[in-house]
């Protein structure tokens, strides 16, 4: 069951205040869930209840995505700017050095937080940053196409398409291996989240020069990659393992780029194995 979405006003010492939307459920050691670019915290709904049986689970809408407003003024969306905002949000929400799980952009952020020893453990699902220049151009081109499509389609057409498995595949088949398993309401909501994301363009622009090239020592790290990821190809997981030799690399059979809906039980088990 989804928890109510709440809002927190974050006031970092050296940056303008900003607001984040979040859901909180469960009790125990905190696990923070970070979504990918153009998505929202509801992407984690298939697994958050499983995790909440043994842990406090906090799902965040990243700044400029979902219900979180854009950052104030001309605040940048690059890693060095966003990471301190996330750690300030963790502190405000009472989650000091949480376990962090991220998908895509969220996976990259989770690994960077681990490298800075700001978290207890990292589970990164198809994290960004392990691409070649050609693979990055391909992924960014696909994302721009999805964004343009979400903006161009009238909402009644999105609602109509979402009623059928074929229509859900046309809307979300790039990120899910089994888009027909996603509910019609969820597909409409995530298409709307992509369409209305004020942080999309700035975040994508900031990612043009990003590559993750450093080890993450002294923090347990698991990298999971869907065998049917069509956006960030599974071979990038091998590069991630070479970059972070101590990481556990886990194949997610039959899963796409956003594996939480394709196989919630498997994803939850991978997360809990890392946390333990």
TrEMBL record:
Domain named AB hydrolase-1: residues: 31-269
Pfam families referenced in this protein's UniProt entry, alphabetically: Abhydrolase_6 (PF12697)
Superkingdom in the source lineage: Bacteria
A GO term for molecular function: hydrolase activity
UniProt keyword list: Hydrolase
Gene3D superfamilies reported in the protein's UniProt record: alpha/beta hydrolase (3.40.50.1820)
Annotated SUPFAM superfamilies: alpha/beta-Hydrolases (SSF53474)
Protein name as catalogued: Alpha/beta fold hydrolase
């Amino acid at each position: 069951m989804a928890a109510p979405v709440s809002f927190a006003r974050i006031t970092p010492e050296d940056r303008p205040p900003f607001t984040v939307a979040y859901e909180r459920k469960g009790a125990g050691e905190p696990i923070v869930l970070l979504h990918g670019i153009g998505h929202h915290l509801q992407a984690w709904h298939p697994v958050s209840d499983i995790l909440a049986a043994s842990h406090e689970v906090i799902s965040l809408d990243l700044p400029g995505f979902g219900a979180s407003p854009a950052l104030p003024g001309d605040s940048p969306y690059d890693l060095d700017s966003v990471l301190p905002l996330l750690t300030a949000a963790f502190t405000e929400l009472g989650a000091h050095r949480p376990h962090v799980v991220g998908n895509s952009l969220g996976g990259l952020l989770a690994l960077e937080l681990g490298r800075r020893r700001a978290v207890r453990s990292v589970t990164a699902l198809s994290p960004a940053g392990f691409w070649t220049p050609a693979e990055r151009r391909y992924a960014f081109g696909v994302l721009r196409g999805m964004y343009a499509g979400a903006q161009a389609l009238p909402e009644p057409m999105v609602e109509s398409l979402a009623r059928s498995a074929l229509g859900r595949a046309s809307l979300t088949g790039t990120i899910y291996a089994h888009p027909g398993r996603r509910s019609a309401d969820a597909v409409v909501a995530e298409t709307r989240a992509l369409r209305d994301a004020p942080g999309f363009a700035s975040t994508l622009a900031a990612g043009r020069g990003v590559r993750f090239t450093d080890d993450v020592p002294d923090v347990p790290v698991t990298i999971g990659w869907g065998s049917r990821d069509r956006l960030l190809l599974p071979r990038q997981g091998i590069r991630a393992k070479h970059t972070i030799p101590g990481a556990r690399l886990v194949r997610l059979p039959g899963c796409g780029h956003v594996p939480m809906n394709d196989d919630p039980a498997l994803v939850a088990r991978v997360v809990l194995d890392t946390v333990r």
